[in-house]
């Protein structure tokens, strides 16, 4: 039994026309008109399949296919159809369309399962519009409250709760997890690890631990022409040393650590004034929680020393910290075995990108099925795969659903 690859491609292409601007990729920010239009397509397709469609009160969409014993905990499959600004054609939407295609294939072949199979589109995964992202799955998993989600605001000051109502996706059903037999998510690998392994299916053992922090560097503003160099308290020069140190951490703490400074604010940001203060974002990700902690502590010591040398002050503020989140071992083994049964090569790895699976794995047996991206390029219009790999991922999902859902005919 195989999925219909042409039909999967066509569903992806149809959704990917929504929010598409030639040369600029796809932009379907959560709760935008484009997100609404893509949701409408999905809901139409789920209804065409005769599924019960449920929209919960934080905008997650479920398409529920009945099982022989509908009281059994369901097998849940899906991902997200929202994108970043100028995103690609696979991140998120591949997992939702693969889940839809699995149901279509079951229908084609008249296959029923003991357990219910539910397709899910999680709301605001990316967090581009309403940081920190993974919003719908966090509420559904009981890690956050609906009021927390409603109160999130975008850069224009618009509230999540209002925007959800505006696009018509604030449902009546409370977002609350029921017991789940298995959660499976197909996604593209958003780096080069899988591609460089030369294997087709990535089997993550879990999501790496992450620390998102902000460093505040305080110096003193002075005249760029008048003040002598030795007298300066130049916050930007101090920050520059610190940023390079963030970049150097993986050299000392191991290759499976990645670190990023992706955002910086300089005040007064004025060319004839010595910079008075700088805030910059620190992102440290690593499978080994102890190493990540030591790296963070060492970074703080270095920053203190750099600040002293530059006659500045520094303080670090952690915004979000999570230890690594391991997936379910037996489900992960099943993904690996299933991929091999289908003749695909597999690569065990850790996922450096976070996914809704990071929330789901805290309440249900969870595994992911990753497929390689060409050059590992994600969050860009050029995001591209070999289509063979996408079909392979969807077929692994289908077989895993048949096993987990206990196909009966
Ligand atoms: O991290 C990501 O970009 C993804 O959407 N999970
Ligand atoms: Mn994604
Ligand atoms: Mn993404």
Helix content: 25-40%
- The number of helical segments is 12
Main β-sheet, in a few words?
6 strands, mixed
Strand element count:
14
Indicate the structural class.
alpha/beta
Lateral strand order in the biggest sheet: 1-2-4-3-5-14
Q: Which molecules other than protein and nucleic acid are bound?
A: (2S)-amino(hydroxy)ethanoic acid, manganese (II) ion
pLDDT < 50 stretches = none
Q: What is the CA-CA span between the terminal residues?
A: 12 Å
Q: What string, H for helix and E for strand, traces the elements in order?
A: HHEEEHEHHHEHEEHEEEHEEHEHEH
Shape: elongated
Write down the overall mean pLDDT: 97
Please tell me how large the radius of gyration is. 23 Å
Word description of this protein:
With 409 residues, the chain is an alpha/beta fold. It has twelve helices and 14 strands. Helix 1 (5-16) crosses helix 3 (93-108) and helix 8 runs antiparallel to helix 9. It is elongated. The relative contact order is 0.18. The site of (2S)-amino(hydroxy)ethanoic acid has 8 residues, from loops.
Write the layout of secondary structure elements.
Blueprint: H1 5-16, H2 33-48, E1 52-55, E2 61-65, E3 75-79, H3 93-108, E4 117-121, H4 135-140, H5 146-151, H6 160-166, E5 182-188, H7 193-197, E6 201-207, E7 209-218, H8 235-253, E8 258-260, E9 264-267, E10 277-286, H9 289-309, E11 313-322, E12 325-326, H10 329-341, E13 346-351, H11 357-360, E14 366-371, H12 387-405
Parallel strand pairs: 3-4, 3-5, 5-14, 6-13
Antiparallel strand pairs: 1-2, 2-4, 6-12, 7-10, 7-11, 8-10, 9-10
The structure holds (2S)-amino(hydroxy)ethanoic acid (HGY) and manganese (II) ion (MN) (2 copies).
């Amino acid at each position: 039994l195989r999925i219909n690859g042409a039909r999967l491609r066509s569903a992806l292409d149809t959704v990917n026309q929504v929010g598409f601007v030639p040369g600029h990729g796809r932009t379907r920010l959560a709760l935008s008109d484009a997100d609404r239009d893509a949701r409408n397509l999905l809901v139409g397709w789920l209804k065409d399949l005769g599924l019960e469609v449920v929209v919960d009160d934080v905008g997650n969409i479920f398409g529920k296919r009945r099982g022989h014993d509908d009281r059994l905990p369901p097998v849940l499959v899906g991902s997200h159809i929202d994108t970043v600004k100028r995103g690609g054609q696979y991140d998120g939407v591949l997992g939702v369309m693969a889940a839809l295609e699995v149901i279509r294939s079951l229908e084609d072949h008249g296959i029923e399962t003991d357990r219910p199979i539910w397709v899910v589109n999680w709301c605001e995964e990316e967090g581009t519009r309403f940081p920190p992202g993974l919003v719908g799955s966090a509420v559904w998993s009981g890690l956050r409250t609906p009021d927390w989600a409603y109160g999130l605001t975008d850069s224009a000051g618009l509230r999540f709760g209002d925007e959800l109502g505006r696009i018509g996706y604030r449902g009546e059903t409370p977002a609350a997890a029921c017991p789940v037999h298995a959660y499976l998510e197909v996604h593209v690998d958003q780096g080069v690890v899988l591609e460089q392994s030369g294997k087709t299916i990535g089997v993550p053992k879990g999501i790496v631990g992450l620390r998102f922090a902000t460093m505040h560097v305080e110096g003193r503003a002075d005249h760029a022409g008048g003040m002598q160099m030795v007298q300066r308290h130049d916050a930007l020069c101090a920050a520059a040393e610190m940023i390079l140190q963030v970049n150097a951490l993986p050299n000392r703490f191991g290759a499976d650590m990645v670190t990023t400074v992706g955002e910086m604010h300089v005040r007064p940001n004025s060319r004839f004034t010595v910079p008075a203060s700088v805030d910059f974002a620190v992102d440290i990700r690593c499978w080994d929680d102890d190493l990540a902690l030591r790296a963070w502590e060492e970074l703080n010591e270095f920053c203190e020393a750099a600040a002293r040398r530059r006659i500045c002050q520094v303080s670090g503020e952690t915004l979000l910290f999570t230890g690594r989140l391991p997936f379910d071992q037996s489900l992960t083994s099943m993904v690996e075995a299933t991929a091999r049964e289908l003749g695909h090569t597999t690569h065990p790895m850790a996922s450096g990108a976070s996914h809704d699976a990071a929330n789901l794995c805290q309440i249900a047996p969870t595994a992911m099925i990753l497929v390689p991206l060409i050059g590992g390029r994600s969050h860009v219009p050029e995001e591209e795969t070999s289509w063979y790999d996408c079909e392979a991922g969807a077929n692994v999902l289908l077989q895993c659903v048949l096993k987990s859902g206990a196909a009966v005919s």
